[in-house]
Amino acid sequence: MPGGQRVYAVGDIHGLDERLGTLHALIAADLRSRPVAAATVVHLGDYIDRGPDSAKVLARLSGLRRIGRAGVVNLMGNHERTLLDALAGDAPAATDFLHQGGGATLASLGIDAAVPAAEWSARMARASLGFLRGLALMHRAGGYLFVHAGIRPGIAPDRQLAADLVSIRQPFLASEADFGVVVVHGHTPVPAPAIRANRIGIDTGAALGGPLTAAVLEGDTVGFLAA
Predict the structure, then answer these.
(1) pLDDT at residue 67, as a whole number
(2) What gap in Å lies between CA 191 and CA 202, rounded to an integer?
(3) How confident is the model at residue 220 (pLDDT cuts 50, 70, 90)?
(4) How far apart are CA 1 and CA 152, in angstroms?
């Protein structure tokens, strides 16, 4: 990272609003104790499904502009992409959404699982819908590229397919190639942050009993906060 800049990258949240609130408080406290000229919090996607409070996570993030003195960037995960496709009338996507833990999301929104997918959007808060539709696919800061899942090796970051950015596992995870950036990603659960020469994986399986992790990137150092 360039001097005077810091990024906090937050891994997959999956409906764990209380944990997210705790992690945001830790980030704010870190900023107070170690001020920096410019800070950004990047949420890497997968805000919904599996956990009990997806609606609260969406409400929290849709109205969030700053955490302490840090700006906020929200990226799209595969779970958000699947829900958006379902809301657009894609019947297989609606089925996939439910198979991926979407029932918990509907319950948190007060929507019975028996309600047809065509009616979901009408029962969702307008702010949450706007938030989902406005999610970015990537964010670049210094020598880091932030995406939900990863990138396809051999293709420049600005030519990546959206489907790969939100869903890829292999061949990205096994690649030892120099991507020209260090890719910071979630999507694939690991018991502890995976630090490689070309990538940093921080989905530590919060919805599976692990911690919710944030990577703290400053200069050429990497630290972690967890809730």
Answers:
(1) 97
(2) 9
(3) very high
(4) 23
- pLDDT tens for each residue of 102-126: 999 999 999 998 999 999 999 999 9
- Tell me how far apart the alpha carbons of residues 6 and 43 are, in angstroms, rounded to a whole number: 14
Q: Which of 37, 35, 57 is nearest to 46 (CA)?
A: 57
Quick: pLDDT tens for 149-196: 999 999 999 999 999 999 999 999 999 999 999 999 999 999 999 999
Which three-class secondary structure state does DSSP give residue 148?
coil
What gap in Å lies between CA 111 and CA 123, rounded to an integer? 7
CA distance 74 to 61: 8
Distance from C-alpha of 8 to C-alpha of 29, rounded to nearest angstrom = 12
C-alpha angle 226-177-79 in degrees, rounded to nearest 5:
45
**Which DSSP category does 127 fall into?**
H
In angstroms, the CA 30 to CA 26 distance is 6
Can you read off the two tokens belonging to residue 73?
Answer: 């960037």
Structural domains present in the chain: 5-226 (3.60.21.10)
Cβ atoms 210, 189 nearer than 8 A: yes
pTM check: above 0.85: yes
The type of residue at 73 is V
Residue 192, SS3 per DSSP: coil
